[in-house]
Fold this sequence. Notes:
Layout: E1 32-36, E2 39-45, E3 51-62, E4 69-72, E5 82-93, E6 104-113, E7 116-122, E8 128-129, E9 134-138, E10 144-152, E11 158-170, E12 180-185, E13 198-200, E14 209-212, E15 228-230, E16 235-240, E17 243-244, E18 248-257, E19 260-271, E20 282-286, E21 293-295, E22 300-308, E23 314-317, E24 319-320, E25 323-326, E26 345-346, E27 378-382, E28 385-386, E29 402-404, E30 410-413, E31 425-427, E32 468-470, E33 478-483, E34 491-497
Parallel strand pairs: 9-12, 27-30, 29-34
Antiparallel strand pairs: 1-2, 2-3, 3-11, 4-10, 5-8, 5-9, 5-11, 6-7, 6-10, 12-25, 13-23, 14-22, 15-22, 16-21, 16-25, 17-24, 18-19, 18-22, 19-20, 20-26, 27-28, 30-32, 31-33, 33-34
Amino acid sequence: MLRTNRNRLILPILLAVLGVGLMAPGAQARPRVIRTPQGTETIRAGKDGVRHLSFRWGPVKIAPGQNTIAISDEQLKPPGPGWITSFAPNLTYVNGKVPRVDIIHLHHAVWLINGRPTWAAGEEKTRSRMPKGFGWRYRPGDRWALNHMIHNLTPNRTRVFITWKMDFVPLRARASRHMHEVQTQWLDVEGGKAYPVFDALAGSGPNGRFTFPDDSPNPYPDGIVRNRWVVDHDGTLVGTAGHLHPGGLWTDLKLTRNGRTVELFRSRAHYFEPAGPVSWDVSMTATPRNWRVAVRQGDVLSVSGTYDTSTTSWYESMAIMPVAMTTTPAGGADPFVTNVDVPGVLTHGHLPENNHHGGRPGILHDPRKAPDGPRTSTVDISGFVYEQGDLSAPGRIGRPPVVGAGQPLTFVNDDASNNIFHTITSCRLPCTATTGIAYPLANGPAVFDSGELGFGPVGFTAAANKLQWSTPAGLAPGTYAYFCRVHPFMRGSFRVKG
């Protein structure tokens, strides 16, 4: 559920306007550090008056298994008016170490400036940098807010900092001359939703590739087409990069004018993951620094996302493509005359926090070899354990519960009272290998998923807003394994018998 506890998750800091003194030629600037009980800002001087800002916000107390969204009202901000030209987010423990992505990660963070989504971070940790001469305008009166979702994949408590770095050009600096203002236009296949997700099920789409919304038979049941934006002023697009979840292959940005449509840019996911497109060990491609596209008022920009569905289902997927656009025209190519769909550049290389891939032989027992458990119609989930058929449980309680053919098995999340979500998601047998960013996968021969059992504001969280879920009644006789997508170390099994 949504939490807005000012003493824990909302940590506003008000900063005084700071100055950097003049230095003798060749002198080294010492960083200016401002520390408070709520966070830290570090300011380093650069060339032509540019300042390199580092922010550390928190510490944020993380509950066991946390997977909820919170919003802060204020944030650490730059020291006075100027231009922000780059943005690089991250997450660290209190000791400064970056946590393993398979243990705890920043599922998403969106910085809202005067209510407008401006920068964002996901587990792929895309870094944004404007071309020379372009930047986001910052005014001290701007209101900042942060929508963040920190995902704890374990039952352990911890504390973390959300961190980000900026290059900042003060208004009085030499580098601020002739600066062009940009704003972020948020393009999302589920635009308008606070938690904008869709499912890409195994086998959907042609040739094992599913594109949303194109390949969905009914992508927008309410009739609102959400993946488009009608350009409201003449301007220049100067940068974009996509955001996807594991399994994602690329996002596409297109422009339509007078019935003609052209591709502007394809942001591809480059997986460092040895197993292929199945984990967060990935970097997205962004537009090169010289990419400029002139757009006109009335043009329609649209976005789509493509996922690999050849072997695995991907639940709660995203496809987002924020675009930096100037507030006034600043040149650029006509996309109907010039091919602007050029190869992109990676925003970063392989990150060491993605080194734990999983999938090695584990210590869990093989449910195929286990004797039958009791015949039952209900399995409770409590304390991060499936109370019958949990693959980590010894003895009788570890045996798969049995239901008759044509009968459902109902799971009940008793942890929901502690604001903990769980899923029952099909996994290929035996589903016993070690947990990591590439294992387990939703690749069971029978496709089923409960959604995140628990409660939260509708449309704002991942919560299914129900406590229980039942397996499909048409499952063929046999043994089935499953896991929790929120806490992948949780594994279980059940058996259907005639």
